[in-house]
Amino acid sequence: MTDFLDRCRALTGANHVLTAADDMAPYLTDWRGRTTGNALAVIRPADANEVAAIVKLCADARVPVVPQGGNTGLVAGSVPDRSGTAVVLSLKRLNRIRAIDPLNNTITVDAGCILEEVQNAATAAGRLFPLSLAAEGSCTIGGNLATNAGGTAVLRYGNMRELCLGLEVVTPQGEKWDGLRGLRKDNTGYDLRDLYIGAEGTLGIITGAVLKLFPQPKACLTALAALRTQDDAVALLASAQALCGAALTGFELMSQFSLALVTKHFPDMRLPFTEEHPQYALLEISDSESEEHATATLEALMSEAMERDLVTDAVVASSIAQSRALWNLREHITLAQAAEGKHIKHDVSIPISDIGRFIGETDNLLAQRFPGCRMLVFGHLGDGNLHYNVSAPEGMNDAQFIEQQEAVNRVVHDSVHRFAGSISAEHGLGELKRDEIRRYKSDTELRLMGVIKQALDPLGLMNPGKVL
Ligand code: FAD
Ligand code: MLT
Ligand code: ZN
To answer: What is the predicted pLDDT for the residue at 194?
Structure first.
């Protein structure tokens, strides 16, 4: 292996092949701090050609490769196993915005670009890149593509698959495929781009992408509605869609418990209501007319909903700072729950019409089986995507509760399956849900996935142990 590492050093320069334990440590533990692996080395190539050359060396030496972007993934997909035989390939030095074409409404970027930097580059060109999620200051476009990330604007703009027109990929054999096309129509055979998106690094390494841009809305306005039940939130969503149409860009659900943790762990943050309410919905509209029109639309929606007794209280933000403060509450839920302690995470999607019934039934089943356990439910209601997390009963040690993870997963995921939902709406499978998915996908679907993996990566070197 010394020979292999020397060849890698010759390609990237010695300081970009990390082998000391302290240097490698940040790359070996996942964001949640739940999974720590080991690696032969962490390699940090500078561009797509270096990635191709390194992957070719790995193929020749039969060294497994774990691609890593910002390491913010939530399913332990970006860290190696404990064997110490793999290299972590960090893509973060691939950080160039390659081109912006405002007429074609596209931006071409390296895979290691941080999401927020791509949003900023689009804004500077008078355009919008709409993918938005709480980890946007550290996650990368490559990771967003590899997980087909969702976030808070899917309702209007779609998830990462819908935002990508072209890809550049290094195959497991170290060949570079240039599919960087900025076309909205291209029916020339199998869609390789869509195969790599959402593959979580198991089929190849994404090194570049052409992404869609959109016109900037004239005004973006946020409202927070207080509600009694999740069913009321679903009814409010239907009203908002009927009134606002495509202008409704975000509709997030947050339970009282999730916001109580935010205000507990981030005492500077406050809810704009004097009383507590069981549920909250955060709405965003992106208006193509004006700020006044946006305000009038949201105010009309909220007063109608209050007249129908769907909404018990509401605020419409009157400034960008107020909008930001409302979004901050939403975006700090994950951090607050992490600060509170260990918990069991689920990222599920359900047909929107069944959301209320799904939560009611699953809450009951869990309460019977694990008395006192606390459900923290929030998420992208507009997409039917809930983060249905379960915490230990008050007073019980977190670690003791986590031992029951498999049994808790069984209750939640079986319930999702009964409602014809998905056990991973936006985070992917990684290592965390690799075995779980075998229970819910058909043999045919699993076999076809295996055939694709075998055809593209016959040596099984791309992110082994993840997804399949
Ligand atoms: P990593 O974590 O580094 O990697 C994720 C997966 O992609 C791994 O399997 C890795 O091997 C693979 N990969 C990374 N780069 C490449 C590449 N260039 N080529 C091939 N494979 C690659 N996700 C959502 O969908 N919606 C949310 O709202 C959301 N909110 C979040 C909020 C917080 C606070 C946090 C911590 C995470 C959140 N996530 C969310 C999850 C995470 O941010 C996303 O999955 C993100 O897309 C991962 O990007 P990354 O660069 O950090 O990827
Ligand atoms: C979110 O919507 O905030 C994320 O997907 C993160 C999470 O599920 O914790
Ligand atoms: Zn989410």
So the answer is: 97
Judge whether 149 and 426 are in contact, CB under 8 Å: yes
* pTM over 0.95, yes/no: yes
Edge-to-edge strands, sheet with 97-101:
97-101, 106-110, 205-212, 164-170, 176-179
pLDDT at 1 over 90: no
Residue 387 in contact with ligand 2 by CB distance below 6 A:
yes
Spacing, Cα 316 to ligand 3 middle (Å): 23
Does residue 140 sit in helix, strand or coil?
A: strand
Residue to mutate (ligand 2; options 32, 258, 387; most atoms within 8 A of CB): 387
Q: Which residues contact 419 (CB under 8 A, 6 or more apart)?
A: 350, 351, 354, 357, 358
Domains, the chain, ranges and CATH? 2-90 (3.30.43.10), 97-215 (3.30.465.10), 219-334 (3.30.70.2190), 341-443 (3.30.70.2740)
Q: Is 250 in the pocket of ligand 2 (CB under 6 A)?
A: no
